[in-house]
Amino acid sequence: MDLSKPRPVAAPPYSVAQTAPHQILVCKACKHQGQACAPGHALLKKLRAAIATAGLDEAFEVSGTACLAGCVTDHGKPCVVGWRATAKATWLFGDIDPNQPIDDLVEFARLYAAVEDGWMGGKDCPPRLCDNTLARIPAAMIVTREGTIQ
Q: What's the CA gap between 94 and 96, in Å, rounded?
């Protein structure tokens, strides 16, 4: 990595402010096409409606975001979806087809909200998501001179 060249600074649309206790991020930038991701936008709209219908819209904000770098090929199903919350593990699922039922995504949201630290085993996830798990990232622990913060 050449450290002499300036590095781009994250700014909107890469920065996504969280306004609800939990957040679901849907990739809406297709790196394979170099343009906005139509399947990502479709999934975002569908997932927002499903979360509201399930009565989870107070607990979850569903936001579109820049590339989550989880798709590996341009095979018509490039959607990557992530869950995050303060003091909870972050989850990333890939190869989500917006044309398929999204019941598993809504069920995962229910499970994620119910688990205090967001940490679950693969057997706890809805079946379809088990095969599509890209990452389960532990909650960050940041230690400063003042002490540990989340």
A: 5
